[in-house]
Amino acid sequence: MLGNVIAFRRFRPGGSIFGEYWVGLRYFKMFLADPTFWNVFTNTLVLGGLTLLFCFPLPIVLALLLNEVRARRLKRFVQSVSYLPHFLSIVIVAAIVMQLLSMDGTVNQFVRAAGGEEIAFLQRPEWFRTIYVSSEVWQTVGWGTILYLAALTTIDDDLYEAARIDGANRWRQTWHVTLPGIRPTMVTLLILNIGTFMAVGFEKILLLYNPLTYPTADVISTYLFRVGFASSNFSYAAAIGLFEAVIGLVLVLSANLIARRTVGTSLW
Amino acid sequence: MVTVDAAERATEVGPRPRRRRGIRQTRGYRVFQVVNAIILTLVVVVTLYPFVNIVARSMSHEAYIIAGQVNLVPRGFTLDTYQLVMSDPLFWTNYRNTVFYTVTATLISIVMTTCYAYVLSKKHLKGRTALIGIAVFTMFFTGGLIPNYVLVTSLGLKNSVWAIALPNAINVFNLLVMKAFFESLPVELEEAAAVDGLNTYGILLRIVLPLSKAIVATMVLFYAVAFWNSWFAAFLYMDQQELWPVTVYLRNLIAGATGAENIGAIAEANEVQAEATLKSVTIVLTTLPILLVYPFVQRYFVRGIMLGAVKG
What we know:
The complex is a heterodimer. Chain A is mainly α. Chain A has one domain (2-262): MetI-like fold (Orthogonal Bundle), CATH 1.10.3720. Chain A has helices at residues 26-32, 35-55, 57-67, 72-83, 90-101, 106-113, 125-153, 157-165, 170-181, 183-195, 202-208, 214-217, 220-229, 234-262. In chain A, helix 3 (57-67) packs across helix 7 (125-153). Chain A is flat, with a radius of gyration of 23 Å. By secondary structure, chain B is an all-alpha fold. Chain B has helices at 2-13, 27-58, 62-66, 80-86, 89-120, 128-140, 145-154, 161-165, 172-184, 187-195, 200-211, 213-229, 232-237, 246-255, 261-269, 275-311. The chains are: A mainly alpha, B mainly alpha. Chain A: InterPro entries: MetI-like, MetI-like_sf, UgpAE/MalFG_permease. Chain A: The chain crosses the membrane at residues 45-69, 81-101, 137-155, 189-209, 234-259. Chain A: This is Sugar ABC transporter permease. Chain A: It is a multi-pass membrane protein. Chain A: It comes from Micromonospora sonchi.
């Protein structure tokens, strides 16, 4: 972590790992004036926001649906299957995505069957966000239900009974008993999700993007990767990385604070 | 262990009978049950389809794939591409590397995590809060890619297993899970052992660890899967193709990058048209080990994550 100091110093490959001399905020000023930086910054926020929008609530929905299943075998089967993608390497996920979206892949077979023209999905910037978020949902939604399912079993039966006596139908029971019952879990996971907001799937984007999709796919972490390793501008890249990490930390801390003030649940 | 019970109930036994709310079921609820079953079936289909599709592609003849006619079943069944990939020595070298890296890194990780967690579980330790704080802080704020790279390179770890194992040796989540487990063990047990003349290491090795087999096994699984799946560290720090793990092999194949020409040359030499099937076959061969062990280890993972969530 101390190595972050090179963000403030001139770094020379082969020299000291802490850099040569102080340059102050030069690198920070540099990227604030860099138009590419603002593009990747926006992309990061959009991709992070979309991921949060879908990957946070969908496991809750799936958990609630699973919770209503009476047939135990069916439930276990659905659970086992939906956890599976979580165990795959990100490389495999990216490879599968590429196969499904290739010109001769399944998705384009559908497009053709619907009378459309094949689309080179991975070369089109306007598709990248959809591809990224849906593959993220595919990989994480099942695994995300585990904690909610555990929380659901801890809700007191008496609460449901009381709600029924008060004339609540099932929707109202879900709304007034089930959801408040899993609220601490929801808040905790929301804060954790916000913590990874800025670091949006760096490895996956690195595998899936290409120069054609940079306008929507390039995020802070991939940009700094290229700045660092393709242009060997280590100090500049470290400054961008530090900036990103600080924003991430601020986000977590404020989410935690807001959660503690408003709903009384927090990580620490 | 109350929490593990809760976990088991949630994942294995299913909900308690209270789900039968009321004796009569409304019509609306019956409709909901049907719709729910349909939705969940769709979830299963959507989750599994990509796997089936890849397997089908891997066994199909190139021509059918290019024509876009392969979905669920192989067309023009052939296993030639499997032979092709398996005859690439680099593929096997890389596979061996994956196994070697996974075993080494997991060993290092488990030893380091156990030691750190055990120390942290001792309430009388001076500076305990600070030590925990340091660990947790890294969950939310890390050194960053470039400083890490500079550090690892300047330590001379490039092109060695250490570059993969050391920077990721302790996963904070796993650490907290283990710490919570050690804390749940009765103190009296260790006190009795101390009275009987065991020193600290003796207590850890002969009393605590035998009682912690379950958690250690879970941690080994967590680490092993993470290292098996990892590619980025190797991609960053290994610049010779003989040192890559198989994930990097696959990455270069799908990215059409250097190193992939090797297998391309083999394909050409054998006069096999296999560009499209090649990727599918490699995906299948790299995924296979995980798919094979998955049914057996799945519940340990669920238990592990539950422990961490409830206690950590």
